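Q: Joint fold for the lines below.
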Amino acid sequence: MNQEPIIEVKGLQKNFGAFTAVKDVSFTVNKGDVFGFLGPNGAGKSTTMRCMLSLIKPNAGQINIFGKNLFEARNEILANVGSIVEKPDFYKYLSALKNLEIFARISGADVNQKTIYETLDFVGLAGREKDKVGGFSHGMRQRLGIAQTLLHQPELIILDEPTTGLDPQGIIEVRDLILRLKNEQNKTVILSSHQLAEIEHVANRMVIINKGQTIIEGSVSELMNAQETLLSIELLERSNEALELLKQQFPSLKAEVISPKTLELNVERQFIPAINSALVNGGFAVVALEPKRTLEDFFIQMTQN
Amino acid sequence: MLWKNTYNEFIKILAKPRSYIGLAALTLLILIILFAMKADGRMYISFVTASFEQTLSFNGNILNGNLIAFIVLQMLIVHIPLLVALVTGDLLSGEAAMGTLRMLLTKPISRSQVVYSKLIAAAAYTFILVVWMGFLALVVGRWMFGTGDLIVLNSDGLVILNYADILWRYGLAFAVAYLALMTIATLSIAFSAFADNSIGPIVSTMAVIILFTIIGSLDVSVFDHVKPWLFTTHMASWRSFFSDPVPWAAIKESVWILLGHNILFVAIAIFKFKRKDITS
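A: Joint structure:
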């Protein structure tokens, strides 16, 4: 992975009157990252994203994008950024095509009709370009929002909660779109979401913020592997004997028998293959190994701590 | 970027149904006035001229298109501010209410340019309203009632203007009326920069007009120093073009005060909008 930083946020702070929405947020996004931006409601995610797009002026801190200070080179930076903040809102009385033409005209790039039609096709809205946005479903507006972010071929895409309110099919479609942006167009994407599993599926790096402060930042796989996972093991039989075998081979293992066929263990993810091998070599028929601790648990653990 | 966004603003105004409310209302009001004058205009005129009939004799077509245009202007200049504010008060705050302001301001266009482009669109819309009013009042009025000398009842008495000496007066009167309406447009844009909903700036604009008009009409000495500086005091200065001789000095003063208000309101709008946190 290229380590060229695209975004550097340092010591960001934003107050609304006496209320501090963002106290001290810092993180770095590298070129080519799909970067997960996590935090519970009210953590300061949207405020941070709005600061990154110059919608809100921070009280303190620094935001550098493409190596330049956001508030000194705003227009130059935003010409290379596509974004959706919270939800994409359009002029409902205009067609999808007219809406995209309006945003393309002020995107800082020469966007022709062909590009607009191709972008609509990319997000699965081909054939609906003449329809008024007022008649679009939430999912269609979301896809139109993503089309709007791509029109001027930006290097960086910022998506704030892009799957909010979508049905499972819509969530899968947006997730696939994000992966296509990374894989086919080599975009850098920042993604905040309450669908924490979504971050796990698409992001390679992430930051968790809570109460306006950065809690942890790093690679998703490293952060996940460093944490203990609750592993459920389903066997054909003899779970008591399997537990004894595992305790012999892994003395520090925390495990318990749930039923004659089920064990539960607290283990770091990197040891799961070794545990599986030990059971199979010990003659136990392993039906399933299911890691129960997900990013969601990790997220809750981090934010509660 | 300014002109590109101005073009966008024209597209939005043209596509918005509320933009046509003003034109439709104006058309309806003027047609009602024309119809009423056609039906009962002679009685209306004789009521006005009755007090002069002992000393003056009126001959010819008194109820002509020129007089109708004057009556229309006088009646509607009070109501048109609402029609202007209905569109211009929504220009910034309507985008905030719709959520499109977020999208707009994440593009490489400065906030001042956003305000300027909306101001240009508002100026064009107000211009169209004034031109349409002029067309209906003067052109349709002359077509329906013919032409003739214009008799105007001023505070100094009766002024009779020769029909050949009228068109330039209307031209300049509409220009000053346009400047007065632009003051309303810029005031509502300034309110719009503070608000995140459409209704607030429209109501606030009308509230200011009503308040200033009341202060201007109160015969109380405590307001004597304030009245000359209220823009509402100068909104009817278009009428001065129908005096003889034309009080150019007073008109110039009114134009400067209206221009000053325009500049002040635009400056307030830009000052506020540039510093506004977009949380909508």
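Q: Anything notable?
A: Chain A has a mean pLDDT of 86. The longest helix of chain A spans residues 168-185.
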